[in-house]
Design goal:
The complex is a heterodimer of chains A (163) and B (162). Chain A has helices spanning 2-22, 26-41, 49-61, 82-94; strands spanning 63-71, 76-81, 98-110, 114-127, 130-144, 150-158. In chain A, α2 packs antiparallel against α3 (49-61) and α3 (49-61) packs across α4 (82-94). By secondary structure, chain A is α+β, with helices and mostly antiparallel strands. Chain A is built from four helices and six strands. Chain A has one domain (26-158): Nuclear Transport Factor 2, Chain: A (Roll), CATH 3.10.450.50. Chain B has a single domain, classed as Umud Fragment, subunit A. In chain B, the strands form three sheets. Chain B has a five-stranded antiparallel beta sheet with strand order 10-9-4-3-11, with no helix packed on it. The termini of chain B are far apart. The chains are: A alpha+beta (163), B alpha+beta (162). The interface between A and B is medium-sized, with 21 and 24 residues.
């Protein structure tokens, strides 16, 4: 009896996983965009220059044509196009000899054609021979594309502590 | 034989219920009551060192308000990555740093947990209603790189009891 229950539960779990993989929800698609962003903005030690260019290009592909950035601590405020995002990604990644970025605690507010996401992003790496550790709460805006995907259209830091 | 059965219990309904109870109790204990936190960074040294493990009592402020000198976990977008800081001033109080000394309402605050020199200087500011003023214990780092300031009360997840 218990064996049958376990087999049915396992089959149901596999079915759910397959459904989620082949028919991803908007939430899943947005989470994948974050995964791609963190994967491509990260920089492994000893990365070749060409690989760095490809990753910067992959970062810019995740953004819409016009992107609003409100990141005053990083010296970025205003609207940027995709080419500028690519340059910014290259400059940012080149500051580090090694960089690992991850986003956790994603909270999504979905509407028909746009979404707002808050997340905690953590960067760990080495810049100029010094270890770097930074944690920020970020707010991201995304817009739906014609092919039913999602692209980032804005980023801002959320101020958790105010001096 | 007995040891074998203890390690791999018979697959019956009783074992299944036991496992479910154990998993539920562990989840309740470690995610809702005493959340384990692995410290990353040096902002709370020497009280808490990089890499050490602490627990956050998430029920600490259910029936009471945060107090001065409490070490608290501060929620960011969620509760998986949090900030760990010490409350040094309460709503309505005025905070300032002068040559590394923390002054609350104009009087120096005795902070026995501090070590190392500090040269922080910060103009006076009043803690807004509904917020608390939090700072890390490591004041020997430059003030510009240390994350501190007023935080909304709602962001306080709980207290680190020891």
């Amino acid at each position: 009896m218990v064996k049958k229950v376990v087999i049915v539960l396992a089959a149901a779990a596999v079915a759910v996983l397959l459904l989620r993989y082949f028919f991803p929800s908007d939430e899943r698609l947005i989470r994948r965009q974050f995964d791609r962003l963190t994967e491509n903005i990260s920089r492994p030690a000893g990365e070749k220059a060409l690989a760095g260019l490809q990753r910067a290009a992959a970062v810019s592909d995740l953004f819409s044509d016009r992107v609003r950035l409100d990141l005053p601590e990083a010296g970025l405020a205003g609207e940027y196009d995709r080419q500028e995002i690519r340059t910014l990604a290259m400059v940012f990644r080149n500051r580090f000899t090694r960089l690992s970025v991850e986003c956790r605690d994603l909270h999504l507010e979905l509407e028909q054609e746009q979404a707002q996401v808050t997340a905690t992003c953590r960067a760990r790496g080495v810049a100029g021979g010094e270890p770097v550790r930074e944690v920020r709460e970020v707010s991201a805006d995304l817009v739906r594309t014609a092919k039913n995907g999602w692209r980032f259209s804005g980023f801002s830091f959320v101020r958790v502590l105010r001096r | 034989m007995r040891a074998g059965r203890w390690l791999v219990p018979a697959m019956n309904l009783r074992s299944l219920v036991r496992v479910l109870l154990l998993v539920s109790a562990s989840w309740l204990l470690f995610s809702r009551l005493y959340q384990p936190l692995c410290i990353e960074g040096r902002s709370m040294e020497p009280t808490y060192t990089d890499g050490s493990l602490v627990f956050c009592n998430r029920m600490a402020y259910l029936f009471s308000e945060p107090r001065r000198f409490d070490v608290v976990a501060i929620r960011m977008a969620g509760d998986r990555i949090v900030l760990l800081k010490r409350i040094v001033a309460l709503p309505g109080e005025t905070v300032r740093f002068r040559n590394g000394v923390l002054l609350v309402d104009g009087r120096p605050l005795a902070e026995p947990y501090l070590q190392g020199p500090s040269d922080w200087n910060l103009a006076p500011r009043t803690v807004a209603p509904g917020t608390l003023y939090v700072v890390g214990d490591n004041r020997s780092v430059p003030m510009q790189v240390h994350v501190f300031g007023q935080v909304d009360r709602q962001r306080i997840l709980g207290r680190v009891p020891w």
